[in-house]
Design goal:
Helix content: 40-55%
Radius of gyration: 30 Å
Number of helices: 30
Strand content: 5-15%
InterPro entries: Aminoacid_DH-like_N_sf (IPR046346), Malate_Decarboxylase (IPR051674), Malic_N_dom (IPR012301), Malic_N_dom_sf (IPR037062), Malic_NAD-bd (IPR012302), Malic_NAD-bd_bact_type (IPR045213), ME_PTA (IPR012188), NAD(P)-bd_dom_sf (IPR036291)
Distance between the termini: 33 Å
Strand order of the largest sheet: 7-6-5-8-9-10
Keywords: Multifunctional enzyme, Oxidoreductase
Shape: globular
Family: In the N-terminal section; belongs to the malic enzymes family.
Largest sheet: 6 strands, mixed
Oligomer: single chain
Structural class: alpha/beta
Protein name: NADP-dependent malic enzyme
């Protein structure tokens, strides 16, 4: 089969090159549609804020984006594990760091790759940029120059300067350490610490642990030549000198005898089980080399069942991930206009993360990762997609800045925390939640278009994430050739190929179809022919429970795909009809659109049915539905047969489901602007802006979601087909690989729910 690394490499290249190259762009925040707009944004109007800033430099935060703008800056001398590849080649990494800043803390970033011939030249370049930015994130700069560069810039600049390679790992692993010593019942001041590695991150971690209470004399550090001891010679000014100790130990193995904590920031495979056996009882093992740790997690746990183990990997518990730190540290620092990120702010971040891990984990986090988390040896730091991290860490950092006098403005912390909770909305981890739920109990999913490259690429991700076991329909030789030719990473045994023309069950399926449809004009011969069609065959596999769900439709019209689903699988018992729904992952939160794909002919009953189904689906996503019945009329402002139909549907749904918040008829802008809604209709029954938007006809719903997706850049997941007896997903022809993966995850979750609740509770798909 194909080389996994090769496939991942191709995927990464395609990811970066597809569409607009790179991962970031600059987007105007003000309208620029008229000549007046242009005259305000630039000459002559722009002179006004210029002069206000000239008179009072602090006004720059009022009139420009500086207060939310961070520079991610590198000279490319220590890029990931790739070494000194230069500033130009480092640009994808710096863009990636910018994406994380934006996604997790809504901080804007300019990535700057500096071609400098010396550390001093680099310093001069960065220092000269101070008027542009609210903060500086140094990245991928080799040691020992990184220490010198950061220190000099902190001295010269009056904005936060933070080298994440040093301090990020220190803060996150420091939080893990605070909790590990509590669980292991060890005193932090008595810990015997051994550090494997002596680079920038290792030295920064060791220094930070001292700030947390570890005694400096209890830290033994090792580099590639062994223990940093007085028996060796070091040049003056070498950062390692701070950790040279007069100890008898010569090797890492020597140092680990009786050690309480191993901090690994070196290279893969450096630590053996025998070394761990020599450590003290109830040891703490942080093997953080990436991508592969000094000793792998399962081996460490098997060797020392009494240990707490953390790595940098996401596929094991206790991942030390820098994304838990830098976005939120900068968020807090920027919001109080801190002049620096000092030690107290870093310590506050570590304590905040440690404290958060001790709290009850909300269901949204458990669901996102597909397991229950509880504070203990397997959960000592929060998960990266925990939405609480932002409003937990940033306020702690802001408070420390205010307490230590480096903040230029004071915040009321309760109000600040509340503002942060609404900053990113609740949709950040939505799809990850369903991917994790699917991976918790994967199901068999059939893909009739098994020879479509998009399906095969999606199945590569689906198998890697353990979302489902794909069943590919089609000619086995053709499918296998496509997998080879496209170098798709589909490991043998992770999928099946079924050819309907040769499958032994085809005859039995044809007989079943004939019995069910003989009074609908389907003859025995037609049944045999239909079972050679992959879409019909796949539907029969679902109906006969050979598989748990179906994902299809890339190469068929929507109606031609739904028709065999209705004929073979049918509507769920108790459902009045089927309908199509889209999830719009808006920054302000999830929106549910219906009907977008199925019902052409509407009356008040149809509209009420659709609204009820979409509202129930919203509950499945953990959202309390607030239903808006949309029209061109606001609460009777226009008397017309079309608006009257919407008003009648609203009344019908209220009678049928008094437990739902339903309002209408109303215009779309009123539905999503709650203040406007209250001003127009103070007696509204909604308690906030609508999140379930029911369109008066299919055209309106279809147009609305496509315009939001294409022009508004709002991610759309769907179409989700509601009301089928078994999980059926019908894709659109322009469906992306990512959307196929997401829709497959939803299909699996629907199958899980069907299995868990055979009574016919509302299904997602």
């Amino acid at each position: 089969m194909s080389n996994p690394r090769s496939q991942r490499g191709k995927d990464a290249l395609e990811f970066h090159a597809k569409g607009r190259p790179g991962k970031i762009q600059v987007v105007p925040t003000k309208p620029l549609t008229t000549q007046r707009d242009l005259s305000l944004a630039y000459s002559p109007g722009v002179a006004e804020p210029c002069m206000e800033i000239f008179k009072d430099p602090a006004e720059v935060y009022k009139y420009t984006a500086r207060g939310n703008l961070v520079a991610v800056i590198s000279d490319g001398t220590a890029v990931l594990g790739l070494g000194d590849i230069g500033p130009l080649a480092s640009k994808p990494v710096m863009e990636g760091k910018g994406v994380l800043f934006k996604k997790f803390a809504d901080i804007d970033v300019f990535d700057l790759e500096v071609k400098a011939t010396s550390p001093d030249q680099f310093i001069e370049c960065v220092a000269a940029l101070e008027p542009t930015f609210g903060g500086i994130n140094l990245e991928d700069i080799k040691a020992p120059e990184c220490f010198y560069i950061e220190e000099k810039l902190k001295q010269r600049m009056n904005i936060p300067v933070f080298h994440d390679d040093q301090h990020g790992t220190a803060i996150i692993s420091g939080a893990a350490l605070l909790n590990a010593v509590e669980i292991q019942k060890k005193a932090i001041g008595e810990l015997k610490v051994v550090v494997s590695g002596a680079g920038a991150s290792a030295i920064a971690c060791a220094k930070f642990y001292i700030s947390l209470g570890v005694k400096a004399e209890n830290i033994v550090m090792c580099d590639s030549k062994g223990v940093l001891s007085t028996k060796r010679k070091f040049e003056a000014g070498d950062p390692k000198l701070e950790f040279v100790r007069d100890v008898p130990a010569v090797t890492l193995a020597d140092a680990l005898v009786g050690a309480d904590l191993l901090l690994g920031l070196s290279r893969a495979g450096l630590v053996t089980p025998e070394m761990l056996q020599a450590m003290a009882p109830r040891p703490i093992i942080f093997a953080l080399a990436n991508p592969d740790p000094e000793i792998d997690y399962p081996t460490a746990k098997e060797t020392r069942p009494d240990a707490i183990v953390a790595t940098g990997r996401s596929d094991y518990n206790n991942q030390v991930n820098n994304v838990l730190g830098f976005p939120f540290i900068f968020r807090g620092a920027l919001d109080v206009r801190a002049t620096q990120i000092n030690e107290a702010m870093k310590v506050a971040a570590a304590h905040a993360l440690a404290e958060l891990a001790r709290k009850d984990v909300p269901q949204v986090v458990n669901a996102a990762y597909g397991e229950e988390f509880h504070f203990g040896p397997e959960y000592i730091i929060p998960k990266p997609f925990d939405p609480r991290v932002l409003h937990w860490v940033a306020p702690a950092v802001a408070k420390a800045a205010m307490d230590t006098g480096v903040a230029q403005i004071q915040l009321e912390l309760d109000g600040y925390r509340e503002r942060l909770q609404g900053l990113l909305g609740g949709s950040t981890a939505v799809m990850r939640k369903f991917v994790r739920m699917a991976a918790g109990a994967p199901k068999k999913v059939v893909f009739p278009e098994g020879d479509d490259p998009r399906i095969l690429k999606a199945c590569s991700i689906i198998t890697e994430e353990r979302i489902a076991r794909p069943i590919l329909l089609g000619d086995p030789q053709r499918i296998e050739k496509l997998i080879r030719d496209l170098d798709i990473d589909l490991l043998e045994g992770s999928y099946e190929i079924v050819d309907p023309r040769e499958d032994p069950a085809a005859s039995a399926y044809a007989e079943i179809l004939h019995r069910r449809r003989e009074r609908k004009g389907v003859t025995a011969e037609l049944s045999r022919l239909l079972m050679r069609e992959r879409n019909h065959f796949g539907m029969m596999m679902v109906a006969e429970r050979r598989v748990d769900g179906i994902v299809t439709g890339l190469n068929f019209s929507y109606s031609d795909t739904i028709r065999p689903a209705l004929q073979i699988i049918g509507i769920r018992p108790g459902a009045r009809r089927i309908c199509g729904m889209y999830l719009m992952l808006h920054k302000g939160g999830m929106l549910f659109f219906g009907d977008t794909t199925v019902n052409l002919d509407y009356d008040a009953t149809t509209l009420a049915d659709v609204a009820e189904m979409v509202a129930e689906a919203a509950r499945t996503f953990g959202v309390t539905p607030r239903v808006a019945m949309l029209s061109f009329s606001n609460f009777g402002s226009v008397r017309d047969a079309r608006s009257t139909m919407v008003a009648d549907a609203t009344a019908l749904l209220r009678r049928r489901r008094p437990d739902l918040e339903v309002e209408g008829e109303m215009q779309a802008n009123v539905a999503v602007d709650y203040a406007l809604m209250q001003s127009i209709f103070p007696s509204t029954q909604l308690t906030g802006p609508a999140n379930v938007l029911i369109f008066p006809n299919l055209e309106a719903g279809n147009v609305a979601y496509k315009l939001m997706r294409e022009l508004g850049g709002v991610p759309a997941v769907g179409p989700v087909l509601l009301g089928m007896a078994r999980p059926v997903t019908v894709l659109e022809r322009d469906c992306s690989v990512d959307n196929i993966v997401h829709m497959t995850a939803l299909t699996v979750v629907a199958a899980q729910k069907e299995e868990a609740d055979a009574s016919g509770s509302p299904q997602l798909v």
